Inner centromere protein ARK-binding domain-containing protein (Euphydryas editha), 137 residues
Amino acid sequence: MKKEAALMAKEIERRQREFMEKQKMKHRLDGDKILTPLKNVPAPDPVYMLDGFQYLNSDEDEEPPERPIPAWSTSKARRQQLVVQARVAPRLVDRLFSVRAHSPDLREIFPDIERARLKRTSSAVWRTPPRLPPVRE
């Protein structure tokens, strides 16, 4: 019982120390935030999504209000982005996304494995015939 109580006391003390350290770190981070000037971030464009509820009452003749089309979705804006993307060299795109075909070096992935285990072999055992279960009569 005394050992359990001592272990519990140590665990409680350790957790209290961790909590205090976290509080200190949080306080330091909050202090840094106060000293950093806030940037003027423009308000994001509203997102308009149709939810399908406007079609539930088909007897209503009322049309849903027309919402403005976002500027980024116009064909002119898309065309501009496609022109910019077409000018980027394919080697830069391949370098950015690492799309070159390669097979992994298993020695890097499994550094402690034996060299013989890296060779591809058959998983079947062909030396003996298959053992069938006994047939009950």
